[in-house]
């Protein structure tokens, strides 16, 4: 029986351009949504962008743009990538849209009116990159999630009574074991919640880029409450038209990356319970896509754009690779070599070769019409293929519906290789050379069996590779694949005498030059100068964490040219950036040393500087300084310094900090 099916991706931060990490989640959801549509479910697939908060405000500032202009540009980049890849989302929610703001405020009021919001003061550490309150940490502590130095926050805030939901959450995880998948994540969440929940600050009052708190606009709503609400505001919650909400809520699948499990599996259900809203049926957390051994991320500078792969191998190759190569739920490495290897083995030589050899032989020997199998020429190996196909249909469905995409595809490709072997063993080309009736009948049976198996494999792969399977379907003479009722998919439905369409190669073989081309495209893209439409480049913090404490130490000479001067290339290796001091304090037992937390627009760093004799710490807070941002980290007095500030070093005198007469945005690079 068909039902409704509502699936969501996380909404992506607009501080970074889309890369294949984002594409991975969106493609997985797209494949699931397509399968549900194929099976007749009334499906709604939501994605969008997360545009508020301190991190976005700072990234916009670093790019010299207003937050709204910045968010508009990057949100468009995400959306146009998804359109270019043919992703079949039904709605694209932006958190700066009016419909969302209205919905979030309605949700706030509901939670408040139910008695779960109160006023208080938050003093503690905050990670701007993760937009996470880090409870119980000391100043200078690193974020447990991303490892960046946290900032000290002291603000009058509104609090959510998260602690009131501890028992209910535990009941949820134990009573509904599929609520969090996979099980490893569920166990992590369960032990986190069993460890005790503190109330959560859900507003900020020291910046303004967010949705105002109802009846108290001096505060903006905490960006995670704002963002999580997208899943319900997109359906019209808080508006006059709740048709979609009535139809699709609650979500059937909420797909996320493993780093945002706490927000989705603890805060989100608690917010929903507090607002008397039904809970999602399941939250599925996948692993990370790694590149060069670490999580692909903008700040590490190790991202690969999905566009590059799509340009060279096509979108279906990317979709297949991501869902086949990576065991869903676990981390998986991406490399161009593995991509091309998988493409050639499974697509060019696998499904593509099966399609072209089967269809070419039907064209050659039977004038392009699917031949009649003959009873007389029937052999047990034909039944074995039918049996493999039946098993593939059953296995594919059950693995896929358990989010085991790799295994699902493996079972469909088990059919592809079984038919390949069958063709090799039955040598239809040799049968085709013979003129006797028996050979002719056997040839018809072998090619019919092969074409039917090709049809089944193509149908199964359709949600994963919609474009190329639609082409093979047409070449099989079956018309528009979208018209096919997949619930009925079974062995033996290929109509005899079906006239084939034009036969063309769907997956041309890729050679080494494909890898080189993709590598070159990425290198070029990573080295392009910041441009208005490349905000990720503009705001990318240095890949290597910087260091060195005193302004007095001159920059070490980099590769010199003979007369003692350095080339412009050498100079550009030094990354000088404007930073703003957020926190300044003396280091115990070191008269000259100050510990600073400086904001680079995209991150806050801890640096140590030997300027304590010249500057009182409190005079530095808010001041814009210049730092060398790409020095390797260095430890001093047990503290790590991630950068070096610049100052004039006066003989016998005190250091004087480099500064500007005009106002400059935080994060701006000095060249
Ligand atoms: N804006 C929040 C989510 C709010 S949802 C209410 C956020 N945004 S994000 O831009 O950082 O996107 C995170 C998501 O993008 C991950 O949870 C994951 O789905 C996807 N990925 C981003 N990089 C990834 C990898 N390197 N590997 C796998 N998925 C990745 O967090």
Question: Could you characterize the architecture of this molecule?
Answer:
The protein is elongated and about 105 Å long. Helix content is 42%, strand content 17%. The longest helix is centred in the middle third of the chain and has 31 residues, at 336-366. Strands 1, 2, 3, 4, 8, 13 and 14 form a seven-stranded parallel sheet that branches. The chain has 22 helices and 27 strands. The protein is α/β, with parallel strands linked by helices and 671 residues long. Helix 14 (380-401) runs parallel beside helix 17 and helix 15 (405-426) packs antiparallel against helix 17. The model is unreliable at 529-561 (pLDDT under 50). Bound molecules: 5'-O-[(L-methionyl)-sulphamoyl]adenosine. 5'-O-[(L-methionyl)-sulphamoyl]adenosine (MSP) binds next to strand 2, helix 1, helix 7 and strand 13.
Shape: elongated
Distance between the termini: 64 Å
Uncertain spans: 529-561
Instruction: Give the strand tally.
Output: 27
What does the average pLDDT come to? 90
C-alpha Rg, in Å? 30 Å
| Helix amount | 40-55%
Which hetero ligands occur in this complex?
5'-O-[(L-methionyl)-sulphamoyl]adenosine
How much strand? 15-25%
Contiguous helical run count: 22
How would you classify the helix and strand content by structural class? alpha/beta
Biggest pleated sheet: 7 strands, parallel
List strands and helices in order, with pairings.
Elements: E1 4-8, E2 12-13, H1 20-38, E3 42-50, H2 54-62, H3 67-84, E4 91-94, H4 98-113, E5 117-127, E6 132-134, E7 151-160, H5 166-175, E8 180-181, H6 183-194, E9 200-201, E10 203-204, E11 212-213, E12 216-221, H7 223-228, H8 230-233, H9 243-248, E13 253-257, H10 261-274, E14 283-286, E15 289-291, E16 294-295, H11 306-313, H12 315-325, E17 332-334, H13 336-366, H14 380-401, H15 405-426, H16 428-433, H17 437-461, H18 466-475, H19 512-527, H20 535-539, H21 568-572, E18 576-586, E19 594-599, E20 604-609, H22 617-620, E21 624-628, E22 634-636, E23 639-641, E24 644-645, E25 647-648, E26 656-657, E27 669-670
Parallel strand pairs: 1-3, 1-13, 2-3, 3-4, 8-14, 13-14, 15-17
Antiparallel strand pairs: 5-6, 5-7, 7-9, 10-12, 11-12, 15-16, 18-19, 18-21, 18-27, 19-20, 21-24, 22-23, 25-26
Helix pairs in contact: 2-3, 5-6, 11-12, 11-19, 12-13, 13-15, 13-17, 14-15, 14-17, 15-17, 17-18
């Amino acid at each position: 029986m068909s039902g409704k099916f509502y699936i969501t991706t996380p909404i992506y931060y607009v501080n970074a351009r889309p890369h294949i990490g984002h594409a991975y989640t969106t493609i997985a959801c797209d494949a699931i949504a397509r399968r549900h549509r194929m099976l007749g479910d009334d499906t709604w697939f939501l994605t969008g962008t997360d545009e508020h908060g301190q991190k976005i405000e700072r990234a916009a500032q670093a790019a010299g743009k207003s937050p709204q202009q910045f968010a508009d540009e990057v949100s468009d980049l995400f959306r146009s990538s998804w359109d270019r890849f043919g992703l079949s989302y039904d709605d694209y929610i932006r958190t700066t849209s009016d419909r969302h703001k209205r919905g979030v405020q309605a949700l706030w009021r509901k939670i408040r009116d139910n008695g779960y919001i109160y006023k208080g003061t938050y003093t503690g550490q905050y990670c701007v990159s993760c937009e996470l309150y880090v409870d119980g940490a000391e100043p200078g502590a690193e974020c447990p999630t991303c490892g960046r130095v946290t900032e000290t926050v002291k603000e009058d805030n509104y609090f959510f009574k998260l602690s009131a939901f501890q028992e209910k959450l535990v009941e949820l995880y134990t009573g509904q074991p599929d609520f969090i998948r996979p099980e490893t994540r569920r166990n992590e969440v369960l032990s986190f919640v069993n460890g005790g929940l503190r109330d959560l600050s859900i507003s900020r009052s020291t910046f303004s880029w967010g949705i105002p708190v109802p009846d108290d606009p001096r505060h903006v709503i905490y960006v995670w409450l704002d963002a999580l609400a997208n899943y319900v505001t997109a359906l019209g919650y808080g508006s006059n038209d709740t048709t979609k909400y009535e139809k699709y809520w609650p979500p059937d699948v909420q797909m996320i990356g493993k780093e945002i499990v706490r927000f989705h599996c603890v805060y989100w259900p608690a917010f929903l319970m507090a607002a008397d809203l039904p809970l999602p049926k399941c939250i599925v957390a996948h692993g990370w896509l790694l590149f060069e051994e670490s999580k692909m991320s903008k700040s590490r500078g190790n991202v690969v754009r999905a566009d590059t792969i799509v340009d060279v191998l096509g979108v279906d190759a990317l979709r297949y690779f991501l869902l086949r190569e990576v065991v869903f739920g676990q981390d998986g490495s991406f490399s161009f070599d593995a991509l091309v290897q998988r493409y050639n083995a499974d697509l060019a030589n696998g499904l593509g070769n099966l399609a072209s050899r089967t269809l070419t032989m039907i064209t050659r020997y039977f004038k392009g019409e699917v031949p009649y199998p003959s009873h007389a020429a029937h052999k047990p190996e034909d039944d074995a293929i039918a049996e493999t196909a039946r098993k593939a249909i059953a296995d594919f469905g059950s693995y896929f519906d358990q989010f085991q995409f790799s295994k699902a595809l493996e079972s469909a490709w088990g059919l592809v290789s079984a038919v390949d072997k069958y063709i090799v063993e039955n040598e239809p080309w040799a049968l085709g050379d013979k003129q006797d009736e028996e050979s002719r009948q056997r040839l018809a049976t072998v090619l019919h069996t092969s074409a039917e198996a090709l049809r089944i494999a193509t149908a199964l792969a359709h949600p994963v590779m919609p474009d190329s399977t639609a082409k093979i379907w047409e070449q099989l003479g079956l018309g528009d694949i979208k018209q096919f009722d997949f619930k009925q998919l079974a062995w033996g439905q290929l109509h005899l005498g079906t006239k084939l369409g034009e036969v063309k190669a769907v997956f041309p073989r890729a050679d080494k030059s494909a890898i080189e081309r993709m590598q070159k495209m990425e290198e070029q893209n990573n080295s392009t100068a910041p441009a208005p439409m490349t905000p990720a480049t503009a705001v990318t913090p240095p890949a290597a964490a910087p260091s060195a404490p005193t302004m007095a130490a001159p920059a070490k000479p980099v590769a010199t040219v003979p007369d003692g001067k350095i080339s412009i290339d050498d100079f550009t290796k030094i990354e000088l950036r404007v930073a703003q001091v957020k926190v300044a304090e003396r280091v115990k037992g070191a008269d000259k040393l100050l510990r600073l937390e400086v904001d680079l627009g995209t991150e806050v760093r801890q640096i140590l500087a030997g300027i304590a004799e010249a500057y009182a710490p409190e005079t530095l807070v808010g001041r814009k300084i210049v730092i060398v941002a790409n020095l390797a980290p260095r430890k001093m007095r047990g503290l790590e310094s991630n950068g070096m500030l610049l100052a004039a070093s006066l003989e016998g005198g005190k250091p004087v900090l480099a500064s500007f007469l005009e106002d400059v945005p935080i994060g701006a690079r000095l060249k």
